[in-house]
Amino acid sequence: MLPRIPLCILPTPCHILPNLTQKLGSEIWIKRDDLTGFAGGGNKGRKLEFLLAEAVNIRATAIVSCGATQSNFIRQLGAAAITQGIKTHVASMHAPFEIPDRKPNGTLSHGGNPQLDSLFQIQRHHFADGTWDELESHADQIQRDLESQGETVFRIPIGGSSPTSVHAFVLAAQELTQSFDLIITASSSGSTHMGLAHAFAGSNTKILGISADPDPELLDDLVSLSESYAQDFASTPIPKTKINFSLDFVGPGYGVPSPDGIQAQMTLAQTEGILLDPIYSAKAFAALLDLAHRKQLPPKTLFWHTGGLPTLFAHRA
Fold first, then answer.
1. Nearest to 4 by CA among 45, 41, 36, 52
2. Is 88 helix (H, G, I), strand (E, B) or coil?
3. Which of 101, 130, 214, 304 has the highest count of CB atoms within 10 angstroms of its CB?
4. How confident is the model at residue 95 (pLDDT cuts 50, 70, 90)?
């Protein structure tokens, strides 16, 4: 059994959305990973239970990672690390991008997650916007600098995406007590998406990941993540043709609210009183509503809510 440090209140609730079910004519359920209960909630706490245990196991004195300013993962990472007396150093940019001519405008850069990061004493090293690869390089340099100062560093990639993190969501799928035709979730660094995909591989349940980033190469990243998980956990990798992944709801770009996402936020808030974040979950829920509008929802659908509440209180520079 993998070492694990409990952080979240599990299992998270899973319940039907009665008003939307009546309105859309298809049974709609929601898995409430916005209610994991740790450091503002969200799905990232699940993977951090395992990642933090790895850091403690090597007696890390510092954790280094990277992400966008409004990263939900960084917020929860810092909170997890400080419970064990470990310092968190983060390389950050307001709007990392993959291709220069796709750099998004209007990213949420103030308030929200950074406001909470200070509570957890996260040491944020901010850099001018550049590519994701450049952001990783900045984090690598921070790691080298800390190690030269005698720190024992545990390095975590963007979003904490790793085979161990995928396994966290394979386990999360076991919390479901009934079957669904379709599960929709936001997809970014890929752990949630691929964990659910592996959990339901070979079943009648389809997993659909809705991208929060316009980079088409993310699909290749999902394939690589699946292959790494399969190798480490004696599983079968999911071929590219079997990964259901959509770039259709990204909107203006990563970190930028979309018109469809804003409408989805309003719909869920005004029918069920549930809040969505503008960067990830709102865009994924917009996809669910689009399928309903086109009469393509199956009889029973589950929306896996990944959290992200703090970004509701973020604003543009």
1. 52
2. strand
3. 304
4. confident
Q: How far apart are CA 251 and CA 262, in angstroms?
A: 11
The kind and range of the H/E element at 29 are strand 27-32
What domains are there in the chain, each with its CATH number?
14-42+161-316 (3.40.50.1100), 45-160 (3.40.50.1100)
Euclidean distance between CA atoms 61 and 75, whole angstroms = 18
Q: Are 45 and 168 in contact (CB under 8 A)?
A: no
Tell me how far apart the alpha carbons of residues 286 and 288 are, in angstroms, rounded to a whole number.
Answer: 5
Q: How far is residue 275 CA from its own chain's centroid? A: 16
Q: What is the DSSP string of 104-139?
A: -SS-EEEESHHHHHGGGT-EEEE--S-BHHHHHHHH
- Please choose, from the candidates 256, 246, 311, the residue with its C-alpha nearest in 3D space to the C-alpha of residue 104: 256
**pLDDT tens, position by position, 209-242:** 999 988 888 999 999 999 999 999 999 999 999 9
Q: Is 57 helix (H, G, I), strand (E, B) or coil?
A: helix
The DSSP bridge partners found for residue 3 are: none
Q: In the 8-state DSSP scheme, what is residue 12? A: P
pTM for the predicted model, two decimal places: 0.95
Output the six-digit token pair for 259.
């018109």
In terms of Cα–Cα distance, which of 213, 226, 203, 225 is closest to 253? 213
Q: How far is CA 72 from the centre of its chain?
A: 7
